[in-house]
Design goal:
255 residues, alpha/beta, TIM Barrel, 10 helices, 8 strands, 14% strand, binds 1,3-dihydroxyacetonephosphate
Length: 255
């Protein structure tokens, strides 16, 4: 049985005061919201870990170095994150691919570095609007995912994959549930052929409480990677509850 997961990507947002209020709200309401995690900026991670200590909500980072240690000014390594019991790290977010020139190979190396330190990478894939318009969605996503499979081999089963169409990120324009499902089904088949058919497949791009249930009703959408809406505790919890309700409904059908 695949598990559901809703992850908040705070991006470069937050302050110590705002984070404390947000995390208190999430803690207070997380009891019926299924598996949740938040990925916060590096300086806040230790405080986020402390604020979530003893709660079921996990936390993660938004990037990681391909290197374990050394002369790499400004970088943060997977072993450093692991020292704080970091559970997840985003790799290959489109903002890093686009603004920091991260290639498929670099993203795959980051995923490998995370796994080597016992951290679960949340590997992001997705096409630009130009690629979608050119009919290249599935080939782009397959190429990005193939690089991960090649680098991780058997460890691919310990990865979370997030499909985030670049044109749906921060735009208010979500992929329709059918559009998301079509890509997720192709991803699922590719992952299954690599022995990783049960990894959680998250959808990301303008997910909110209002559109979450329709996305989670799709058979291959296991959860969400949420940007803007994850900065509001009630909105984030509502997305978590929608994922959990969809998963529980599937479990009832299967049992
Ligand atoms: P939005 O939910 O703000 O569109 O961001 C999606 C995203 O990039 C999550 O990683």
């Amino acid at each position: 049985m695949r598990s559901s997961l809703v992850v908040g990507n705070w991006k470069m947002n937050g302050s110590r005061t705002a984070n404390a209020a947000l995390l208190a709200g999430i803690r207070a309401g997380c009891g019926d919201a299924g598996a949740l995690a938040v990925c916060a900026p590096f300086p806040y991670l230790a405080e986020v870990a402390a604020a979530l200590d003893g709660s079921p909500v996990a936390w993660g980072a938004q990037d990681v170095s391909v290197h374990a240690a050394g002369a790499y000014t400004g970088e943060v390594s997977a072993p450093m994150l692991a020292e704080f019991a970091c559970r997840y790290v985003l790799v290959g977010h489109s903002e890093r691919r686009q603004m920091h020139g991260e290639t498929d190979a670099v993203v795959a190396q980051k995923a490998r570095a995370a796994r080597a330190a016992g951290i679960t990478p949340i590997a992001c894939v997705g096409e630009t609007l130009a690629e979608r318009d050119a009919g290249a969605t599935c080939s782009v996503v397959a190429r990005q995912t193939g690089a991960l499979i090649d680098a991780l081999g058997g460890q691919m089963a310990q990865v979370v994959v997030a499909y985030e169409p670049v044109w749906a990120i921060g735009t208010g324009r979500t992929a329709s549930p059918a559009e998301a499902q079509a890509v997720h089904a192709a991803l699922r088949a590719q992952l299954a052929a690599a022995g990783a058919g049960d990894v959680p497949l998250l959808y990301g791009g303008s997910v909110k409480a209002a559109n979450a249930a329709g996305l989670f009703a799709q058979p291959d959408v296991d959860g969400a990677l949420v940007g803007g809406a994850s900065l509001d505790a009630q909105e984030f919890l509502a997305i978590g509850r929608a994922a959990w309700a969809a998963r529980s409904a599937t479990m009832k059908v299967l049992s």
